[in-house]
Write a structure and sequence with these properties.
By secondary structure, the chain is of the alpha/beta class. 33% of the residues lie in helices and 22% in strands. It starts with a helix and ends with a strand.
Length: 187
């Protein structure tokens, strides 16, 4: 039980990079040749997003921001892959909203990739998705493309969220060009 509590309180946060010549993102620890574009920090949270770990996640983000700054590369974007997050509670959603507002003031773009439907609903409830600014992306590739080529037109299949079956959506689009759907709360 103590081990499980440790995993919840201190979830693994991986620095990701793209393996050259591919669209494959991996933890840079075992794949040191994987890299990210200058000014972009790619991270993956492996574990729930909850009251017990928001400080750990915030501190880890701050550490990686400092490392990026020490390399002489101004941080422009943080892409947070939350595909490994099983759920998000209200405390984490509110903390993420605060982080986003702080990053916006600092001129740093925060984007979240591959959230599950529960996390998408929680973010919607906090009002994070109401700004009109693109926040959610179905993949790191889509988020990077949007950052590097904001007007890029992509195919419908690129943006279908794999975790939400099409027959279980109410068809409301979130964001500008992605096909993220909020699940119908009555289902």
């Amino acid at each position: 039980m103590l081990i499980q509590l440790g995993h919840i309180t201190f979830p693994e946060i991986q620095v990701l990079g793209c393996i050259p010549g591919t669209a494959v993102f991996r933890n840079v620890e075992p794949y040191p040749h994987a890299g990210a574009p200058k000014g972009v920090l790619l991270l993956r949270v492996v574990g729930p997003l909850c009251f017990a770990n928001v400080e750990h996640i915030r501190d880890t983000l701050a550490e990686h921001e400092a490392v990026s700054g020490s390399k002489g590369e101004p941080l422009q974007s943080i892409l947070l892959d939350i595909s490994g997050a099983s759920h998000m509670d209200t405390t984490a959603a509110e903390a993420m909203k605060d982080w986003r507002e702080g990053y916006d003031r600092a001129g740093v773009r925060l984007a979240l990739t591959d959230p599950n439907p529960q996390i998408t609903m929680m973010l919607h409830k906090t009002g994070m998705l109401d700004s009109g600014d693109q926040l959610l992306f179905p993949s790191l590739e889509a988020a990077l493309l949007h950052i590097q080529q904001p007007g890029a037109q992509l195919t419908h299949d690129t943006f279908l969220h794999p975790a939400v079956p099409l027959d279980k959506v109410k068809g409301r689009l979130i964001g500008t060009w992605t096909q993220f759907f909020l699940p119908d709360p009555q289902m």
